[in-house]
């Protein structure tokens, strides 16, 4: 299995030899190495293979015991072995010649959506500036190095000069159309902002407990990257106005959602439900259960508006609304 390891080392002769020796003794093979100089220390990124059965914590512990600090270890694919300069040049080509969105390309180049890392302690933000002065914000669990920040801004500036970073035609002033999509790590701030705009009642209906705001970064991360499922969003323009978590819990697929107060009773909850049902069907689910507080009649109406035939049960003061998925069309992951 391939792992990308990021570690900070003392900038002294022989430190890499100590790392290599520890890897050799553990039967861990170093396949690639990048060095990011950050005086008085140095940050190294290595791609290694580890024996079957190794976990991210085991890989991180190996490098920590060999003298590394701030160690992160994430699973990666063979693409991580390709030359960084070549990948960035290819990224420019994809934006200019293939019409790909520059934010999407940068998220791929910077590997912003890896599996969880060992000892996750919060995400780091990279803020880039577009040609029109707008900011492009990219987040990642592993801290960005100054070299990565410079590379990302250089790529954005290059496509800026070609005029591909912003629309050449001003969009019409019509109202933005709601879009339902899967969440990503880059949505952490938008999801947090959504919850801060919600009333106490709306938050209670979703979580069945009083929710303290603002939420922690760890909680926000779990809301966009759940442990055993996916998060779904409703986005209108630049704002996330609805959110839901589709999870497999005790061999049953459940979905809990929230729509901010100003956007309720406009069909957004129903759209989220239909999308969640399609994703659950794609995962092999035969039925899906919506969970909410016992006093939330709006969810019952949204289920009816979605055209579902439902079985309603009460469990510990909450309402569980279970719908069969026989007639639901599966929706593949985007």
Overview of the structural elements:
- By secondary structure, the chain is α+β, with helices and mostly antiparallel strands.
- It folds into three domains: 2-80, Alpha-Beta Plaits (2-Layer Sandwich); 84-161, no CATH class; 179-324, Aminopeptidase.
- 33% of the residues lie in helices and 29% in strands.
- The protein has ten helices and 13 strands.
- Strand 2 (29-38) and strand 3 form a beta hairpin.
- It is globular.
Helix/strand layout:
Layout (H helix, E strand, L loop, with lengths): L1 E9 L4 H11 L3 E10 L2 E9 L6 H10 L3 E7 L8 H15 L3 H8 L14 E6 L5 E6 L5 H16 L17 E4 L5 H10 L2 H8 L9 H8 L4 E8 L2 E11 L2 E8 L8 H15 L4 E7 L3 H9 L5 E5 L2 E7 L10
Parallel strand pairs: 10-11
Antiparallel strand pairs: 1-3, 1-4, 2-3, 5-6, 7-8, 8-9, 9-10, 11-13, 12-13
Helix pairs in contact: 3-4, 3-5, 6-8
